């Protein structure tokens, strides 16, 4: 018996060869065939492929794959060396005795550098910080030792025997000598033979026939491996003396194999010259793993291995850019000129499709269009024929979920799919457990909160998870209310002052969760006319009776969370941590009865995390975080692949598996290939040998495998431009090498073309033939088409409205004073909201996470405005300023007092002016009814009337909005009273205010009629008079002849330092950054709402009746 090598560039050829071999039955009819596969995805594909070959009829579609046992390499090695599933030398088990050895040796000289790294003997703060590395460092070292056993077992043997070498004939570097002593200490405390001892004895036993009860058939196969460790090859070669062993290896180029077979065995990677023997650039730059496998397989004796040769090329290879590229790779050379001359590519060849987009979101949108186009063009293509591979599935998973498979949720109002891809079912094959089990997500968030600051945003993220929302009955409206409360109560971070003590703020209670909840709870108990504050708590004044229950639920949630976090503080054993964490999660969550698997999944992960941990090794939260993270990584299952749906997975599980279409998503520069930080404690990384694992080389090999596995099309997508700045970005370096190699494949250097996609899916280039140099429109998105049409309408609208709207039914009979004032303050809002019923979503305020140390201009205005309103409502200065100190929006301590003192100076100045104008008279509200021209009647209430005069006050400088509101109310008051020169209005604020009036009653009625007529026009067409811009126009235009001056003045307000054009209502009406000229457009028909016409009508009377105090 011996070990046989079978090679092919594609795994379908290998699978057919394996099927042919399996069709010859073993001597024992009841024995199972054993096939060892590297990944679950390959297992699923291979089982399906074999089912079409084994026992199938003439059609080749009715067979069955039975009597075949699939194993992973680790399972086979376990059987060979006789180790158990709880092998104490595996990293997750070895980490615990390693921790004990390190803890016991911190004061010994050999352990000095490791002890210093863990904070031993350092100052208290630094020691506490470094102690958080303890478990992660131990796990990292245990993983290194495991890799040493696989790659260089002789090094561990030398260490055990007292020789500190690197396993390659050189002394161990001085700064790594401590690892040899650490290994010797572990050998003394861990029971059983070491991995290197087991390996040597297993190889000897196999070669001598002392195999005992080996549960393996007379022949077995290893399928699809692109990399094998030296120890694995040695074991297989030894097993080949007792069993018939077949290696089915995907190798891109038989010519390369033949050229390298005489290179010899393993040697330092820096001495490997195999790359210089390669003629094809992709084999040189991407094929290191394939080349080094040749050296690894040369380690055993030539008598141990029989090379059965290459199984030949695919039966059919298309004459496309991709097909020719694969042909050149197989031949191991760049195409010669005479061969190039025979290749006449189709100018529209898209076998190798390259797409550069703006960021991950846009990449997924482009992928969606590409896939729908392929499925539409080829009726024989099915989703199962397409494979999408992505280096970072976790980043792209939510984007893919939103772009595909929405079903009925992706329909418009007419019940039509907005995009055909919404009917495509997608299977994300190997997401992390945290991404698929919400309870594990909650557990991970809780661990992050244990030593975190408990910020408002972090807690809100936890509250937003589905299990927590179900437990506390929190719907979307409740979540929005809680967010508003957090902003109003100024919750920033920390449960209370004691919780902030580790951060040096143990005396600052402001902006904590406790302070915010106290304000909410007090707000449910204190009525609006109750005391302004109770003790040192300011109640929230808008907690309605309908929100009392929500306040209670939020309080209970926070009480349970903080109780759990307190229980998880400090240190404890792994068992104690997992028990407490599980109880905390269960206390905060509730799952649907149909999703009890989530609870079982949580319990399983927590149990596994504590399974092998000793009961006397304490862990801190940083240790537990690493312990859990190690269990929450992606675990692809066999059932996740080849289900008939569109499969999305990482680059590894389906490597080398042929598909008609392979898409590579997210191959961004900097993200691919991986750029792992070289670990200074890794002996293998100091001077690696050929065949030893290298993440960057592995990622490059994965790209080469994908190139060779695509039978018809290969689609590559990357971020080709910054999604914010538009700055161009190159593809990942291996992708650039692929493009260069492909362009040398034919006589047309323009192929393959890179399509640079526009930023937005509704860009017209996506939606018209020829827009992206394609004959047909690229996009299938109906929503994007509607958006593009709307954008074209905005680019060159014939008018703001096609025709004037019919006047409302009550427009000619009655107008409310409040509606008139609101309209004059913002005519765009008056037209969109009041006439068309268009409501703009409220702009959500971002929750702050820092304790304020100063106030910006807006924050200072908000404080001053609240205090001024409180003073006008009759509050004493002491109560008003005390309320601000308790509100939590001022900086703490003296910083807040200083800021409030500055606000106080302004407020008290305005209050003194108020007292001077009102004479201490109380404010009154006057109901008014005025009969205007054309039978129109105005009704309403004028507030803030003191002894017959209107007195308004603002913390800011008096501006156009304040003046126009006071003017309209003054006109109503004068016209209703019928008394000439009896009333005036004073508007007070920072700096110089304004006094309006007095004026005759008949003039007031006429001016009021004009304003009502302007509003009437504004109910049919937009009146284009922004309040500040309109005042500036009217003031500069004078009698109407200074048009240029009016344009300059109005332009300064419309697009100046504080541009009125950015007001959200005007932006919604006119579009972003609309020029001033848009305001000069006249309306349809006889109506005219333009700025030059209506601004003087509104503002000339105001300016004529205005003076400064």
UniProtKB/TrEMBL annotation:
Entry's Gene Ontology cellular component terms: exodeoxyribonuclease V complex
Specify the protein name.
RecBCD enzyme subunit RecC
* TM spans (from-to): none
Q: Which Gene3D superfamilies match?
A: 1.10.10.160, 1.10.10.990, 3.40.50.10930, P-loop containing nucleotide triphosphate hydrolases
Keyword DNA repair attributed = yes
Taxonomically, the superkingdom here is Bacteria
* Xref: InterPro entries: DExx_box_DNA_helicase_dom_sf, P-loop_NTPase, RecC, RecC_C, Restrct_endonuc-II-like
One Pfam annotation reads RecC_C
How does this protein assemble?
Heterotrimer of RecB, RecC and RecD. All subunits contribute to DNA-binding.
| Miscellaneous comment in the UniProt entry for this protein | In the RecBCD complex, RecB has a slow 3'-5' helicase, an exonuclease activity and loads RecA onto ssDNA, RecD has a fast 5'-3' helicase activity, while RecC stimulates the ATPase and processivity of the RecB helicase and contributes to recognition of the Chi site.
Which GO MF terms are attached to this record? Answer: ATP binding; DNA binding; DNA helicase activity; exodeoxyribonuclease V activity
Annotated NCBIfam families: recC
Q: Give every RecC C-terminal domain span.
A: 813-1037
